[in-house]
Design a protein that fits this description.
Blueprint (H helix, E strand, L loop, with lengths): L1 H15 L2 E12 L5 E3 L7 E4 L2 E2 L3 E2 L9 E8 L6 E7 L15 E6 L2 E2 L3 E7 L1 H9 L5 H4 L16 H6 L3 H23 L3 H27 L1 H4 L8 H16 L6 H14 L12 H4 L2
Parallel strand pairs: 1-10
Antiparallel strand pairs: 1-2, 1-6, 3-4, 3-7, 5-6, 7-8, 8-9
């Protein structure tokens, strides 16, 4: 009996011992169609629990010449609780001129990860914009968007923006263009090119306002949408969000879709300009 008890105690102790499990990241960049290349010297990827960085996981160092990097997660073999973590790709001087890949999630139960490898692809800005606008009314405007001296701008009276926003696919493309042009604006700020930064920021903000207005039209009608101003001005963007939130809260009862939109709106109201490109417009653009 004594031996059995000792065995059980040792097994229980082993199940509570802290170990670690590894996740491999494969990072590539794409500067021309179908020409994927390893993206070395990229760091550092952030592990988050919700929206907060956590010490339960880390991705130390930078990617090697093959674009590979190992992340480590602390774990207990006998832990039956499933934990979900976000793996957030970096945006830094090394990734300038490339889009930032979307954040990915991984689940951990005991010392078993839901996946053993995640791939992240950074795409050249110009190529990403050409691909997104191909076959759309915006194709000509963005054909040479990242060239020096590009004279593109957000024209609030242009039907092209609104036309794209009328379909789910068009809205998803606009949301991606919104994010990319916002990233370019931040890069221009870093490069101390204020005129170019203002131009790109106006495009990103203008698209944001188009998406807000189309969501109001789609979900609450033309009369409600009359209060939404489609301009390239950031002050109007934040005002539109407040108006949108008030319209949702004024409803006698809220549907799950209303609740999702209100949650996104409130998060965006509290989002600073430098964080807007990566902010979620999912319920506004899709629902």
């Amino acid at each position: 009996m004594r031996e059995i008890l000792i065995g059980l105690m040792l097994a229980a102790a082993a199940s509570q011992a802290v170990a670690d499990v590894t996740l491999q990241l494969l990072v590539k960049h794409l500067a021309s169609p179908n020409a994927y290349r390893p993206f070395g010297d990229i760091g550092r990827f952030d592990i988050r629990d919700g929206n907060t960085s956590t010490s339960a996981g880390e991705c130390p160092g930078n990617t090697n010449s093959a674009g590979k990097l190992e992340c480590r997660f602390a774990c207990k073999p006998g832990d039956s609780v499933t934990k979900t973590f976000k793996v957030v790709p970096p945006r830094n001087e090394r990734t300038r001129l490339y889009t930032t890949p979307i954040t990915k999630t991984v689940s951990l139960q005991g010392c078993q990860l839901s996946v053993t490898q995640l791939e992240f692809v950074y795409v050249d800005f110009a190529m990403a914009l050409r691909d997104l606008t191909k076959g759309t009314p915006l194709a000509e405007q963005f054909a040479n968007a990242t060239n020096a001296g590009w004279e593109g701008n957000f024209n609030a009276s242009s039907e092209a923006w609104t036309a794209m926003s009328r379909t789910p696919d068009g809205r998803q493309k606009l949301d991606r263009i919104r994010s990319i042009t916002g990233e370019i604006a931040l890069d221009k700020v870093s490069a101390k090119d204020a005129p170019a930064a203002a131009k790109w920021d106006a495009v990103s903000v203008g698209i944001s306002n188009v998406l807000i207005k189309e969501s109001v039209v789609r979900n609450y009608g033309q009369e409600a949408a009359a209060a939404i101003a489609v301009t390239p001005k950031k002050a109007d963007f934040y005002k539109n969000l407040r108006v949108f939130g008030e319209q949702i809260e004024a409803k006698p009862s809220m549907t799950p879709g209303d609740a999702r939109r209100l949650d996104d709106v409130n998060k965006l109201i509290g989002t600073t300009s430098d964080k807007l490109p990566a902010a979620s417009f999912k319920s506004i653009a899709i629902d």
